[in-house]
Amino acid sequence: MSLLRVDSVDKSYGNEPVLHDVSFGMDRQQVEVIVGPSGSGKSTLLRCVNRLTEIDSGEIYLDDEEIHTVDENELRRRVGMVFQDFNLFAHLTARGNITLGLREVLGLSKPEAEAKADDYLDRVGLADQAESYPAELSGGQQQRVGIARALAMDPELILFDEPTSALDPELIGEVLTVMEDLAEGGMTMLCVTHEMGFARSAADTITFLDEGRIVERGPPEQLFESP
Ligand code: ADP
Ligand code: ADP
Question: Which ligand 2 atom is at minimum distance from the Cα of 42?
Fold first, then answer.
């Protein structure tokens, strides 16, 4: 049974069609990379999966439950998201950014949430930065906090929306290393990225979107094969 199934999804903004008849499925522990030109609908597709954006028609199933029947808090727990611009709260420390969701969504006590946050900060190599505010961290460190925040919720699926696109080139590697470790550890990941090295090494499946349609989909060895 697929963990995620996107079935004939259409989405427009006003009169502008953005996704046309998009269908695909993902099994657990799979890494799917979505590539395509700017404006092809990649980010919109991710946002439909966690209901940051509503679809016009079609269905999206998470573990055989249509996502519109899943409680919003539950969906937020089960589907994590890592954003291009990190989306950290500037007034909260690294630890505070992680404990917020653990307390609000999972209902953990403050000490439980803090212990869990510190554990996940350690996993992304930021054990010493728990008390730092986003402005005191590099972009690569901020994005690793973003990943730790997603992971701490123990999600079934994590969406990555161009997680390295806002980073200086020398900071991209530290984020990709964390993502590669997650992929090897069996995390189910749906990633929009331009990092073809990551796609080639970590993806089980690569999907090409163009003008809101899936134009090609397959394993990297098939899609990167020279003609
Ligand atoms: P990509 O991630 O592939 O760059 P997007 O999903 O961000 O593509 O955008 C696809 C198209 O939808 C673009 O033309 C973009 O301008 C438009 N779009 C995205 N979000 C919105 C929105 N909230 N309102 C109106 N148009 C949007
Ligand atoms: P990205 O390309 O990184 O996905 P964008 O810069 O396209 O991001 O969009 C940033 C935000 O603005 C998103 O929330 C997106 O939905 C929204 N947006 C994008 N294009 C439009 C648009 N044409 N009209 C209104 N909102 C838009």
Answer: 4
pTM: 0.91
What is the residue with the minimal CA distance to atom 16 of ligand 1? 39
- The protein residue with its alpha carbon nearest to ligand 1, atom 12, reads 18
β pairing state of 16-26 and 4-13: antiparallel
Q: What are the CB-based long-range contacts (under 8 Å, 24+) for 7-10?
A: 7/58, 7/59, 7/60, 7/61, 8/57, 8/58, 8/59, 9/45, 9/48, 9/55, 9/57, 9/58, 9/59, 9/60, 10/55, 10/56, 10/57, 10/58
Task: Decide if the complex's ipTM is over 0.85.
Answer: no
pLDDT, tens digit, 9 for 90 and up, residues 153-173 = 999 999 999 999 999 999 999
Cα–Cα distance for residue pair 196/201, rounded to 1 Å: 8
| Burial group, residue 71, by CB count within 10 angstroms (0-12, 13-18, 19+) | exposed
What is the DSSP secondary-structure string of 143-155? Answer: HHHHHHHHHHT--
Show the ligand 2 pocket: residues with CB < 6 angstroms: 43, 84, 162
What is the arrangement of strands in the sheet containing 16-26, beginning at the earlier edge strand?
A: 16-26, 4-13, 57-62, 65-66
Q: Which atom of ligand 2 is nearest to the CA of 43?
A: 4
